[in-house]
């Protein structure tokens, strides 16, 4: 039996909101089909699924056995799968890329040929901002929606490229060290000495494989660590700054605005406003539980 084909912007679930802008379609949905009744199906167009609430089963590369949001899945054109929610309790947001836009991307950006799981902050922030724009739709929001869609696609392309490259073992260890120790001062000379290579060779190979300088990568890691820490509303900004390697809250605020276009406080308010109330309540309940 052939898989059911889903046309542009069509998904299993009740659609509560739908928008269109510049060849992109956006929708906010709730699941309506029980897991046992979900059949294998094919999506004609490339699309993203932003998990907001509920437990989801996904065959995407890098996805855990049981997926929980917030997290983002990219599915290329022609994806055939049986991804679904475990129950009819959930919430998700979708971005579908028209065939015309996908063809335009072909010459400028290499997107993954397989579904890709993304739970990094650099992907989640534009996705959450896109959801906010769709909920408060006007002419300016349509422009923002188109721009944020391109931003998401560019990030997915970069991430797929990084994961497909085969750097030397010493270079992978350098990147792991940057990840593990991004909150403390690091110098190229020290990284090169630990790797057993010349600093010039390290800098050149890092850019060749990861398409950025080590310093740029370190700044990105610190911003992502700050984003993760900001998910805890009880954590003071000074502590968030310390955990992410910033001198103080003011330094964090300056870097955050430069990197994401909003303040740490703005991001906390955005996140709190967009996450479902039930999800927030569960997290607060877990935080208050003894032990």
From TrEMBL:
<dbReference type="InterPro" id="IPR050204">
    <property type="entry name" value="AraC_XylS_family_regulators"/>
</dbReference>
<keyword id="KW-0804">Transcription</keyword>
<dbReference type="Pfam" id="PF12833">
    <property type="entry name" value="HTH_18"/>
</dbReference>
<dbReference type="InterPro" id="IPR018062">
    <property type="entry name" value="HTH_AraC-typ_CS"/>
</dbReference>
<dbReference type="InterPro" id="IPR018060">
    <property type="entry name" value="HTH_AraC"/>
</dbReference>
<keyword id="KW-0238">DNA-binding</keyword>
<protein>
    <submittedName>
        <fullName>AraC family transcriptional regulator</fullName>
    </submittedName>
</protein>
<feature type="domain" description="HTH araC/xylS-type">
    <location>
        <begin position="172"/>
        <end position="270"/>
    </location>
</feature>
<dbReference type="InterPro" id="IPR009057">
    <property type="entry name" value="Homeodomain-like_sf"/>
</dbReference>
<keyword id="KW-0805">Transcription regulation</keyword>
